[in-house]
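Worked Example 4.2. Consider the chain below.
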Amino acid sequence: MCVKMKENYIIETFDPLKATDQELFEVFNLLDILFKEKEKDDPLPTKEFRLKNFRHKNPEIDSYWWLLKYDERVIGFSILNVRNKDSPSYEKNKHIAYFQMRIQKEYRRNGLGLELLKKIMTKAKEFEAITTLQNNTSYESGFAFCTKLNGILCLESSENRCYIKDVDWALMLEWKEQGQIRAKQDGRSLLWFEKCPEDIIEEFCKVYTETMNEQPFGELESRPLITPETLRKSEEDFEKLNSTWHAVISREKNGAISGVTDIIFAAYRAHRIEQELTGVKKEYRGKGLGKWLKAEMLFFIRKKYPNVKFISTGNADANAAMLSINTRMGFKLHQQIRSYKFRLTDLEKRITEIKNH
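Applying the procedure from the previous section yields the following C-alpha cells:
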C-alpha cells in the first residue's frame, strides 16, 4: 500500500540524548516495524536496551537527527553522522560524513526521501571540510534510491550467518587439531582476553588496524584506525551496554602477534553472536592460522554460550579468502548490503534535477 502524503507530514529535528522516554518509544515503534520487515524470525530488541543504546553517545561522532511524522506518528527518520576532532582519524577522514535514512514501507515512493535528504544536505554544508557523503543499505528501496541519486556504488558486501546446528563439527575439530599441531612445531600460542592486556595493547591495535585495512573496501574512502584510547573506550562501552567482547590472538615464538579474531555477545540478543575481525599478518599467512583461530573461537562459543543459535558476520563480496573459510564453516547469505558515496556538489545538483523533472 502506498499512502498519498500531500501536506500531511512534518519533519522535525530530534535529539535522542535529550528526548523523553515516551518520545523515544515512538521512534522504537517505527524501528520495530522496520526490524520485522527484514528479520522474520529474530526476536525484537528490548525497549530497555534501546533506551540505553540511544542515550549513549560516541565521543568521536556528532549525530544530527530528523524525524518524519505523518498525523503525529513517526514514519521515518534520517541521521547525519559527522566525525569530530576527538576522533584519531579526523584529519584523514574529516571530508567524509555518513548518513542513514529509513521510511516505513507503505510511505515510500512519495518523495519523502528527498525531503529528508535535503535536511541532511543543508546540515552537511555547514561543515566546510565535508565534501563526501557515504551510506550503506540492505533494502531494495535503498538500492533504487541511491541509484536514482547517481550514487557511486563503492562496495558490495553481505551479512552471513552460521547456524550452530548446521556446523560441520568434525571439520572444525580437524582445523583445530591441525592448528595445534602446527603451533607446537612452530612455538606458537594463543592468548584469550576480554580486556586487552596493557603490555600488548599498542601492538594489538597496530595489528588489528593493519589487517582490518587489508580487507577489500572498494571505492570507500574512509579507513578504520584503532588506537589504545579507542579500544579502551570500546571496552567501557561494551560493559555499559551489557555486552562482552572476547578476543583471541596467536603469538609467535618471539612473542609477536600474528593473528586475531574477536566476537561480541550482547545480553539483549542472547540468541546470536557478532563475529568481528579475523585477520592474519601477511608474513604469517599460509600456515592455516585463520582457520585455526576461527575453529578455536567456534568451540569457545559452543561451550561459553550454549543457547546461541547463530553467528553473524559481514564480508565484502570481493574477500574471496575469508568467504571460502566462512562457507566451509557453514556461513550462508542472510542479506546483501551495498555502500554508496556521493559528492556533495553532485548530489545537490541531482536533487534539483529530480525536483524539477
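The two ends are 25 Å apart (CA to CA). The first strand starts at residue 9 and ends at 14. Compare this with Example 4.1 before moving on.
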